[in-house]
Design brief:
binds biotin, six-stranded antiparallel β-sheet, 29% helix, alpha+beta
């Protein structure tokens, strides 16, 4: 399959119900955030699911964070390692990226029609499988633990975690999500270089209850709702 998100979009446009899940063993055109591609060989885990939440739109920014928590929770239960989250929802183990989340939304005017949540996790890949440009910055559960993970079992556990965090989100329990998110944040006490409408460098002050990243730059405080962190400084 090209991309589980693209495949799911077709069913969603035809009116599929919330909860539809598509999983692939590999993708030939896996999509990452910011228009990048997602390296998707056999051994990885590629999952997308359809959500049709009825929520205040200002809560929308919190959903990626809740889904990041669900992915981190599943990994932690399976490996006993403690994954960190890099705002907004990159999943890290031992300082390297082990997974990412791509959320795509469809609106009719102001009304949210649906939301596609795609999660890619490096599960059983060996280091030699990563192309050069990824091998220094990426890892997999297998690389970290020397254990091969069973895909069906992993998926069942992952969907259970996703369901639990989605319920917390739907109940509007933003405080709980943010408390857990902050405790897993990779950016605590760090400075970052982030590209949004322009490039900013600043010390991370907080990840706010709006799901935004608050940094202190040379010219004052800056609140970011999106953007790509391209460098982290100690
Ligand atoms: C990122 O750039 O960090 C997000 C990567 C998201 C990849 C997943 S794999 C399953 C789903 N289908 C896609 O094409 N992309 C997402």
């Amino acid at each position: 399959m090209e991309s589980t998100n693209s495949e799911l979009a077709k069913y969603s446009d035809e009116g599929a119900e919330e909860g539809l899940v598509i999983r692939a063993l590999r993708q030939t055109a896996g999509k990452g955030r910011h228009g990048k591609s997602w390296f998707s060989p056999i051994g990885g885990h590629y999952l997308s699911f359809l959500l049709r939440p009825v929520i205040p739109l200002e809560h929308l920014n919190i959903l990626p964070l809740a889904m990041g928590l669900a992915a981190a929770e599943t990994i932690q239960k399976e490996t006993n390692l403690e994954p960190k989250l890099k705002w907004q929802n990159d999943i890290f183990l031992s300082g390297k990226k082990v997974g990412g989340i791509l959320i795509e939304t469809k609106f009719s005017g102001e009304r949210l029609l649906y939301l596609l949540c795609g999660i890619g996790l490096n599960l059983n890949q060996e280091i030699s499988q990563f192309p050069d440009e990824l091998s220094k910055t990426s890892t997999s559960l297998f690389i970290e633990t020397d254990i091969m993970y069973e895909l069906d079992e992993f998926t069942t556990k992952q969907l259970a975690s996703i369901g639990r965090w989605y319920k917390v989100f739907l109940k509007g329990n933003i405080e709980k999500i943010m408390e857990d998110y902050r405790s897993r944040s990779l950016l605590k006490g760090k400075s970052v270089k982030i590209v949004d409408d322009m490039t900013y460098i600043g010390k991370v002050m907080d990840i706010t209850d709006k799901g935004s990243l608050l940094i202190m730059t040379d010219t004052g405080e800056k609140e970011l709702f999106s953007g790509s962190i391209i460098e982290i400084f100690e």
